[in-house]
Amino acid sequence: MTIQRIKSKFLSLCILFASLFYLMSPLAASADPEILKMVFVPASEKGDVSDYESLIEIISKRADILIEPIKVVDYNAAVEAMRAGRAHIAWYGGATYIKAAEIANAEAFAAGVRKGESNAGYYAYFVVRADSPIQELKDIKGKTLSLSSIGSTSGDLIPRVEIKKAGLNVNDFKNIVYAGSHDACMLSAINKQADVCGMSSRNFDARISDGTIKSSDMRIIHLSPLVPPPPLAYSKKLSQELRDTIKKATLEAHKFGKIGGYGGEMSHYIEVHDSDFDTLRDISRLLK
């Protein structure tokens, strides 16, 4: 074999090993997309995407990334979008996030604090028409209960927990219906299609604030203990550098303009961690 052929084979092997090293390196494995897809769950008839537009604009500018918001039809679709790689960032309800963390590589990183409030948590309300004879949770026995949608934290999971704590079960109701969203649940009670609605305190407060309902139209008969907040989560398939950049831009977004989130305008965003949702994991296990 000539020296020239030996050199040629050596060069070929070097190129081969260099290519394999690149393909196996963390940098190559975590190549980030040019456009990040951000998925929303329709918790409100008013449109969650519009609530986040200002936040997305600020994060995009501060982190120098493009973010495209996508509204999906239900909680399962939001989880599946990230699992399949069609979404890279998501707003999830707490219960939905637990599933996304389990099967879709989701990682919670931030939650919004509403103006005038001291934390990012919220409540599940049981609400009735103002003229309803129902005064407390035990009075809903034998009535029609409306909930938001299957998998909703404050519109399904927590109301079922509160019902159990009150000594009631599914057989104690005339009917249990899922209205499809928190707003639809509330309207079903207003329109006498249901006797009581279990829903998110944020949606209830937002609909009073925007004039959809008057505070004199409805009464709150029961509120749950504080619920872990609905988080923003990103896919762990994104590089750590990009995730850190997104988190930093989100936590500092309030310094650069008005920001929104689940339930309307936010004061600021705080950092959250996966362990913050362990209480919801415990509740899910108990209900099962």
* Main sheet properties: 7 strands, mixed
* Uncertain stretches: 9-29
Main-sheet strand order equals 2-1-3-10-4-12-11
- SSE order in H/E notation? HHEHEHEHEEEHEHEHEEHEEH
CATH topology assignment of the largest domain: D-Maltodextrin-Binding Protein, domain 2
Mean pLDDT rating: 87
Shape: globular
Helix content: 25-40%
Proper CATH architecture of the largest domain = 3-Layer(aba) Sandwich
Q: In terms of structural class, how would the helical and strand content be classed?
A: alpha/beta
In what range is the share of β-strand residues? 15-25%
Please tally the helical runs, counting DSSP H or I stretches of 4 or more residues.
10
The number of strands is 12
Number of individual domains: 3
CATH superfamily of the largest domain: Periplasmic binding protein-like II
Mind explaining what this structure looks like?
By secondary structure, the protein is of the alpha/beta class. The protein has 3 domains: 1-28; 32-119 and 228-287, Periplasmic binding protein-like II (D-Maltodextrin-Binding Protein, domain 2); 124-223, Periplasmic binding protein-like II (D-Maltodextrin-Binding Protein, domain 2). The chain has 10 helices and 12 strands. α3 (48-63) packs across α9 (240-251) and α4 runs parallel beside α5. Residues 9-29 have low confidence and may be disordered.
What is this entry, summarized?
With 288 residues, this protein is of the alpha/beta class.
Topology:
Blueprint lengths: L2 H22 L1 H4 L5 E6 L7 H16 L2 E6 L3 H9 L5 E3 L2 H10 L2 E9 L9 E6 L14 E4 L5 H13 L9 E4 L3 H9 L5 E5 H9 L8 E6 L8 E4 L4 H12 L7 E3 L2 E8 L6 H10 L1
Parallel strand pairs: 1-2, 1-3, 6-7, 6-8
Antiparallel strand pairs: 3-10, 4-10, 4-12, 5-8, 5-9, 11-12
Helix pairs in contact: 3-9, 4-5
